[in-house]
Design goal:
This protein is an alpha+beta fold. It is 34% helix and 13% strand. The longest helix is centred in the middle third of the chain and has 25 residues. The N terminus is likely disordered.
Length: 598
């Protein structure tokens, strides 16, 4: 117990320190770029350690990669729907991931079949890339698989005959150069291309590619000036990303989006990949300037619900509210990068991972576990423990989330309250919203995100889908939310007037965490149209362990404006008179009683 509590405090302290960020104006590292191969994620000096990792503590994971490649290695690759309007529809790009997997298995095992298959897949991808470019089509919303193809080429570079290497390299360079987003003016943006801004998105689209293309081909003679430009741009963009994400973490940590599938699913790869490739490409360890990432772990801890679920805030799918399938992979990756000089962090992560009773299987950048140098105790070694929380409420400032819990166990009580925030990525009009979990979702966010489908912009992202207050003013035009109509739905048009919020403005007035209760007061008046309300203040009291009191003070400009108190539940309610109802689902129950007016 003492070890666990100490490590939790350690995490909080690490995330609260203002660390020096990578200097976007310092390009001295250019003189350190390796001239040999491999230099993408790994070097020749790393290969013995990778072999050791693959044959010891990551042997089961390596065996999993072998089975994954074994299912396709003896079959011809069949690319389908080559000219699909968006590459996400045909999933052909996934063979870039497989190319990297086969190439690293070649480095680990020395078996010729993996080398041959990696070459075959690289050439297949090159042909596919050139075909898509010639028809001005995207590859995929994400750039992960294209990085995988580059890695595969880099890792087998020394095993290719000179002429074969020259032809393959030149064709791959020109393909990836034309896929990469180099900024405005280079070319028109392709349909469903994601030139993701390093500050406003996950930075996992075509704009991330210049760094990797430049690193893979710098000094190879195809266009070294262009490669240097790409390296400079890629470095500057990653510095912007790092600085922005570090700013978002308050004293308690957090992540880059309050929607867990993004912030803890896809977003962190941009940081891992940059740390690994900067080290392998230059020999310089940049982790001391990116220690803010340790703050992600505390948010990972607090947003986890029993059965590896999460609250479902923002643009979550709400189909099962499961945490991202690769969450344990992210935990291990952060610990491996930042825990080499911090054994307490490793101890905490080993225990935390024991809560995840899920099988590991390859995810994005599936070769990363084989680069690990630190071993984490497995579920079989670490006894699963549930603990009573000494801190029962944590405010993640940039996300506007106050998360409460009695502990980490299956029968504990969990709640989340939405208030003042600075990060609006994938967030809904849901200020003063609350979610409660006890043996299932007692109060939940409703709706889901069909794309296309008008349910998304006209319900799911709006206040009416959340446990909030609505005040309906006739003829109010609410702001648009992303999403497009499905076939037969007509035009998107303006959202229906549900009386909800129109801005992301709130003020946290109070937060008090005591042994008996947690008290929150939040003013969301500015989130509503100024012509319809003068006050919308919610006081939220959690009387431990499982009584909640919600007290709203609402003053509208006109008394006749209809006001609604919304409470979304998972099953049909059972009324008990006019002032009380109950619901039962998922093995739990809640009773909702109106206290005022008397």
């Amino acid at each position: 117990m003492k070890r666990l509590l100490f490590s939790l405090l350690l995490l909080l302290q690490i995330s609260s320190v203002a660390f020096a960020q990578p200097d976007a104006n310092d390009y001295s590292w250019l003189s350190h770029i390796r001239t040999d191969h491999p230099r993408m994620f790994l070097t020749k000096e790393d290969i013995p350690q990778i072999k050791h990792t693959a044959s010891t503590f990551e042997q089961p994971y390596c065996a999993m990669l072998k089975r994954r490649i074994g299912r396709i290695i003896d079959k011809p690759v069949e690319l389908v729907d080559l000219l699909a309007l968006s590459g996400e529809k045909n999933k052909n790009d996934r063979y870039g991931d497989h190319a990297a997997e086969s190439a690293i298995l070649w480095l680990v095992t020395g078996e010729q079949k993996y080398l041959d298959f990696a070459k075959y897949l690289i050439n297949t991808m090159i042909d596919y890339y050139h075909l898509r470019i010639a028809n001005d089509l995207n590859i995929n919303w994400y750039a992960f698989s294209q990085i995988g193809t580059l890695c595969a080429y880099d890792w087998i570079y020394n095993d290719l005959p000179a002429e074969e290497r020259r032809v393959m390299g030149e064709r791959l360079y020109h393909a990836l150069y034309n896929i990469a987003w180099h900024g405005q003016g280079f070319r028109e943006r392709r349909y469903r291309e994601n030139p993701s801004n390093p500050k406003n998105t996950g930075f996992y689209g075509s704009s991330v590619l210049p760094w990797y293309v430049g690193l893979a081909f710098y000094g190879e003679g195809y266009d070294d000036k262009a490669c240097e430009r790409m390296l400079r741009k890629g470095y500057a963009d990653h510095c912007k990303m790092s600085s922005y994400r570090a700013e978002l973490l308050g004293k308690n940590g957090g992540c880059s989006s309050g929607t867990v599938g993004y912030g803890l699913g896809y977003y962190p790869y941009a940081e891992y990949d940059f740390i690994h490739t900067f080290r392998s490409g230059t020999g310089i360890d940049i982790t001391p300037k990116m220690k803010y990432m340790v703050g992600y772990l505390n948010y990972m801890d607090w947003c986890r619900l029993p059965e590896n679920r999460e609250f479902g805030v923002g643009d979550s799918h709400h189909t099962n509210n499961k945490l991202p399938y690769n969450i344990a992979t992210h935990i291990r990756e952060i610990a491996d990068l930042f825990g080499r000089n911090n054994p307490e962090l490793i101890n905490w992560v080993s225990e935390f991972i024991s809560l995840y009773k899920t099988k590991r299987y390859p995810s994005r950048m599936s070769f990363l576990p084989l680069l690990h140098r630190l071993q984490f105790e497995s579920d079989d070694v670490v006894e699963r423990r549930t603990t009573t929380a000494t801190q029962s409420a944590t405010y993640f400032e940039s996300l506007g989330q106050i998360i409460m819990r009695t502990g980490r166990g299956d029968n504990d009580t969990y709640a989340l309250f939405m208030t003042e925030r600075s990060n609006h990525k994938h967030q809904h009009y849901d200020l003063n919203n609350f979610i409660i979990y006890k043996n299932g979702y007692r109060a939940l966010d409703s709706g889901t995100r069909p794309q296309p489908g008008l349910h998304l912009p006209q319900y799911y992202g709006r206040t009416v889908a959340h446990n909030c207050i609505t005040v309906r003013m006739p003829d109010e035009e609410l702001p648009a939310y992303w999403g497009t109509p499905a076939p037969g739905e007509g035009k998107k048009g303006t959202p229906p007037n549900d009386g909800g919020q129109c801005r992301y403005e709130a003020k946290l007035l109070a937060l008090e965490d005591t042994a008996e209760y947690v008290y929150i007061a939040s003013d969301a008046t500015e989130a509503y149209h100024a012509d319809k309300v003068d006050k919308v203040v919610r006081e939220f009291v959690w009387i431990k362990p499982d009584v909640f009191v919600v007290y709203d003070r609402v003053v509208s400009d006109k008394a006749e404006y209809p006001k609604r108190w919304l409470y979304h539940i998972a099953s049909e309610p059972v009324a008990n008179g006019k002032m009380e109802f109950s619901e039962s689902s998922q093995g739990g129950k809640s009773i909702c009683r109106t206290l005022l007016p008397k």
